[in-house]
TrEMBL record:
Record's protein name: Thioredoxin reductase
The organism's place on the tree of life at top rank: Bacteria
The organism of origin for this protein: Methylorubrum zatmanii
Pfam families the UniProt entry points to: Pyr_redox_2
InterPro entries per UniProt: FAD/NAD-bd_sf, FAD/NAD-binding_dom, Ferredoxin-NADP_redctase_2
Residue intervals of the FAD/NAD(P)-binding domain: 31-311
Entry keyword set: Flavoprotein, Oxidoreductase
Region spans: Disordered: 1-22
Gene3D superfamilies linked: FAD/NAD(P)-binding domain
Length: 355
C-alpha cells in the first residue's frame, strides 16, 4: 500500500481509513475519484496508477462492455475478445500498479466551497480534488411481449458498428421508431440487402427525405405490433405479428438509443447536451472545474477504443493539473518527472509547448 492507495488484497477502502482516523489525521483527499469501472474508468485507472496518483475507482458493475459476447473490432485481438475478459484483463493491469477498485455506486456528488468534491458512497463522503466521470450510458430496451431486457440478456444486437460485419448477407431486422432506427438500417445496408425496419406497433416517424432514403435502399417497413417473440438459443429468431404472420430473421438489432448516466453531475450545473451527455473540451474537461468525463457518457462514438482514448487524455490532463500535489510515494520531486518542454497542452500552463 502506498500513499492511501491500497493494494488490491487489503480490502480496505480509502474512505474507511479516513473515517477511522478522523480527528487525528489531516483529511485524506484523493487526487482523483474515478466513477465507473468500464473501459474508460479502467483505462484511467491504469494511467493514474502509473502516474502514481492517489485515487480510487468506484464501480457499480454494470458495464456495457460486459454485455459483449465477442468483440471483433477492438484492435489488438485478431481472434476477438469477450467483453468480460477484456474488463478482467484491464482490472488486473490496473491492480498490478496499485489501483484500488471498489464495488459500489456513488449516489451523490457535490462540491465544497474550497473546491474539493465530495462523493457519497454507502453514506460516506469521499473527498477528491478531481473527478473523472466514466459512468457510461444505459441502452433503451425494446418493448417486446413477455421477453424483457433483450439487450441486457444479449438476445438482440445493439451496435451495427460493432458487429454489422458478422451480419454479412443475412436477414436483418432493426427495431426503431424513427430516424435513429432508419439510420441504423441504412448503416447495415453495407452488409445486406435484406433489411426490415420494425416499429413494434408504433407509427414510424420519418421525414419525407428519410422515407425516400428507406425506399431507395429497399428497406422494408413493418409497423404492426408483435404478438409473440420466438427465442432460439441466445437469439431472437422470429416475431409472430398481431396479424398472424411470422417473420423470421437471422439477426435482430435494437436502435432505440440510450440514456447517459449523468444525473450525478446535474446538481453541479455541469453542461450537458440535449441527450444528457457531458460536454467536454479536447482534454475531456467538463464545464465544472476539476470534473472530467470519458467514454459513452460523453457525446461521441460509443466504442471501447474511444472510451479508452478519452480516458487516457483525461487521466493525463488530471495528472498535469495536479502537478505540484506531492506524489503519494513521496518521490523527491514528482513535479520534475517531466521537463517543461514535455508538458502537454492539457496541463494548466497556458505556455505549454507540446501536446
Ligand atoms: C451488446 C453490446 C455490444 C458491444 N460491442 C462492442 C464492440 O464490439 N466494440 C466496441 O468497441 N464497443 C462495443 N460496445 C460498446 C462498448 O461496450 C461501450 O462503448 C463501452 O463499454 C463504453 O465504456 P464506458 O467505460 O464509457 O462505459 P461502461 O462500459 O458502460 O462502464 C460504465 C461503468 O460505470 C458504472 N457506473 C455507472 N454509474 C455509476 C455510479 N453512480 N457509481 C459507480 N459506478 C457507476 C457502471 O456500473 C459501469 O460499470 C458494445 C455495447 C453493447 C451493449
Amino acid at each position: 500500500m502506498w500513499g492511501g492507495v491500497a493494494a488490491p488484497s487489503s480490502g480496505k477502502s480509502l474512505h474507511h481509513t479516513r473515517r477511522e482516523k478522523a480527528g487525528t489525521m489531516p483529511e485524506n483527499v484523493l487526487d482523483c475519484l474515478v466513477i465507473g469501472g468500464g473501459p474508460a474508468g479502467l483505462t484511467a485507472a491504469i494511467y493514474l496508477a502509473r502516474f502514481r496518483r492517489r485515487f480510487q475507482v468506484v464501480d457499480a458493475g454494470a458495464s456495457r462492455a460486459a454485455l459483449i459476447p465477442t468483440s471483433h473490432n477492438h484492435a489488438g485481438f485478431p481472434e476477438g475478445i469477450h467483453g468480460k475478459a477484456l474488463l478482467s484483463r484491464m482490472t488486473e493491469q490496473a491492480r498490478k500498479y496499485g489501483a484500488h477498485i471498489v464495488p459500489g455506486s456513488v449516489t451523490r456528488l457535490e462540491r465544497r466551497p474550497d473546491g474539493v468534491f465530495l462523493a457519497t458512497l454507502d453514506g460516506e463522503p469521499i473527498p477528491a480534488r478531481t473527478i473523472l466521470l466514466a459512468t457510461g450510458v444505459v441502452d433503451r430496451e425494446p418493448d417486446l411481449p413477455d421477453v424483457p431486457d433483450v439487450i441486457r440478456r444479449g438476445l438482440v444486437r445493439h451496435c451495427g458498428i460493432c458487429d454489422g460485419y458478422e451480419a454479412l448477407g443475412k436477414r436483418v431486422a432493426v427495431i426503431g421508431h424513427g430516424s435513429s432506427g432508419l439510420h441504423e438500417a441504412l448503416f447495415l445496408r453495407t452488409y445486406t440487402a435484406d433489411i426490415t425496419l420494425l416499429s413494434l406497433g408504433r407509427s414510424l416517424v420519418l421525414t419525407e427525405e428519410e422515407g425516400r432514403q428507406a425506399a431507395q435502399a429497399e428497406i422494408a417497413i413493418v409497423e404492426e405490433p408483435v404478438r409473440r417473440v420466438v427465442v432460439e438459443g441466445d437469439q431472437v429468431r422470429a416475431l409472430d405479428m398481431l396479424g398472424g404472420a411470422c417473420r423470421s430473421f437471422d439477426v435482430l438489432y435494437a436502435a432505440l438509443g440510450s440514456d447517459a448516466r449523468s444525473d450525478l453531475v446535474r446538481g453541479l450545473g455541469t453542461r450537458l447536451d440535449d441527450k444528457g451527455c457531458v460536454v467536454t473540451d479536447e482534454h475531456q474537461r467538463s464545464s465544472t472545474d476539476g470534473l472530467f468525463a470519458a467514454g459513452d457518457v460523453v457525446r461521441s462514438l460509443d466504442q471501447i477504443s474511444v472510451a479508452m482514448g478519452q480516458a487516457a487524455i483525461a487521466a493525463t490532463a488530471i495528472h498535469n493539473r495536479l502537478r505540484g500535489v506531492p506524489s503519494p510515494r513521496g518521490a523527491p520531486d514528482d513535479t520534475l518527472s517531466f521537463s517543461p518542454q514535455d508538458l502537454c497542452t492539457c496541463c494548466s500552463r497556458p505556455d505549454a509547448r507540446r501536446h
